[in-house]
């Protein structure tokens, strides 16, 4: 658990401002870890709207089931998150644990259990003892305050080596609104809808259905474009809470022209958090951007980009600072998408290494090697077929990944 | 290249008997390696029938293109294989290299270039200098003899740590026929049709279309059920040659009742070779069998089994001797196939660790840990939905895989 901070961690950590209508607290409930917080409690003023997207896993966690069921109401008063135990594949006991946690949280906040949103992250298959939240959440409710965002992001970490936060201030109609976000995740990252856990908060007055539309669109271009190991979690949860306390006429439709800047800001924030997840990829030493262009469609480009970003051979080559573009060819070839070997071009950074189905005649290994020694590497592929484009982010695959995951439970 | 022999290598290496109509020779052409053979030359008597299955990669090697084009003729006189260079993604030069190699081989054997089958394995993207075969193949043709099968298997190795051979003798009609086979492959192994390279030889008298039908069916249940790293090669090639020299009335249709034992023997041999590939998986310390039952269909079971066998988290857990069945749940969940969390059961070896969507109440961690310490580990999943079944083979993921692939080219 105590791995050194990823060398790819952001050099600057922003201070997140308070958001009207939101108070935070963290606690150490002793769920699994010692000497650190493992509970995050967030309370929302009445009238807070909520949207969410979740893992597409056929074996979702009990907390994901709970959130999905409550999302229809569109209202949230509490978010309670624990780390150390995913409460996934825990059967009937798992469902009872979410119900009990929500009851404890609702009593603490003075709301209905249906207004409580839950997330759990950590080991799969261990029963979660929800009685550990008894007293703890009530105490959190008393202590909760508008500050402490970085502490909040720390409380939900598992194998993460740094807390992941981001903030944006954008214009909505005639006023400024704030968007704060946090995320956790370092392994089992190939979100099929959202990442392990990410929570985004705003004081904007936007109705739940509009939030939902924007969140789904934003996730598709951020979290769903990140992979660490191609393993999709049982617990992926991305929730967006809007207190409306910034005031102004509420946004009721996704077509509202006032949304332009908010939509952009939200997407930038989601992308920021998603990239931080890749930067904290287990054992990561290099941050990798894969850009695919010239595909038959955007969807096809995305699948090819993911095939490259998930290839252990491509990722170990990048880890070894080896401009082994033959493995990129392999990953394009195996993606099952339209591709024509003889039209393919490949770049590492600015260096074109392959052109029209063969090594670039002007290719200089020394130049390519210099690119590979950088901390951030961009792999670019042009398929030469159409206008489809996609960008995804990942990290290299190193011995440290094996080390971290060879004895995660022990 | 000089990694120690996999601890999972077969304890007993069979001696392959001669096959009437087949002569072999190997040579050191200095394509990439020093101090070892890198060329295999096999000559066939006139009348030899041939069948083949190849990678489904959209970026196949030039040799795969060459074999595909010649397969229609159904006749083979020479198989020429080189290691050290895959002649893949080498553009027009690659096509010229195969043509020149085939010409040199056809002159050496006194046949037409269309009767020459080629395979190349090694680095992708480097031009293959076919002039290196000049003189070498003619010399091979002079030296070729019915023995030397293990040397042949050695000449086609790249990151393999042991040569892979197998033999079966089966009844066909009123006589015994022999099937010999060899394979190479250790990384970039997730065959979508066949593995990197595998060649199978028999003296049976069977027509090419019948061979083709049996080979495709056999590959689906052997090589296509093996994965090392989920990376599908550009060069996967499985060829079956039948000299007919055992005599007897030739088998002309796939429905011929005499084929029963041959079909079985061929499939057992293909499975043997395929499992040897997983046993030589780069960095492998454990041989892993994944059995999935109770799926909605066999195809669905296969996809779920592959999702488990390709999961880096499952594979690192097995490498770490950790009975982390939560990761098996994750891999079932992400496969995108019908699954019901609450009907799922999971076993490691004989130990049922999960039952009906939760940890097995009788589960004993010590028992499960003992299973994980074995050199061969079976992961079994029952989905509880239907009668679909599949078995696939893989290996664990260790630091040695990273080591081998972080500096393959250097």
What does this structure look like?
The structure is a homodimer of 410-residue chains. The first copy, chain A, has 2 domains: 22-279, L-amino peptidase D-ALA esterase/amidase (4-Layer Sandwich); 287-406, ArgJ beta chain, C-terminal domain (Ubiquitin-like (UB roll), Roll), CATH 3.10.20.340. Helices cover 30% and strands 24% of the residues of chain A. Chain A contains 11 helices and 15 strands. In chain A, the strands form 3 sheets. A 6-stranded mixed β-sheet of chain A has the order 13-12-11-14-10-15. A 5-stranded mixed β-sheet of chain A has the order 3-9-8-7-6, with helices on both faces. Chains A and B meet through helix 2, helix 8, helix 9, strand 13 and helix 11 of A and helix 2, helix 8, helix 9, strand 13 and helix 11 of B.
How many domains would you count in the coordinates of chain A? 2
The largest chain-to-chain contact, stated as pair and per-chain residue counts, equals: A-B, 74 and 74 residues
CATH-defined architecture of the largest domain in chain A: 4-Layer Sandwich
CATH superfamily of the largest domain in chain A: L-amino peptidase D-ALA esterase/amidase
Approximate shape of chain A: globular
Helix content of chain A: 25-40%
What oligomeric state best describes the polypeptide chains here?
homodimer
Fill in the keyword field for this structure.
homodimer; 410 residues; alpha+beta; L-amino peptidase D-ALA esterase/amidase; Ubiquitin-like (UB roll); 2 domains; 6-stranded mixed β-sheet; globular
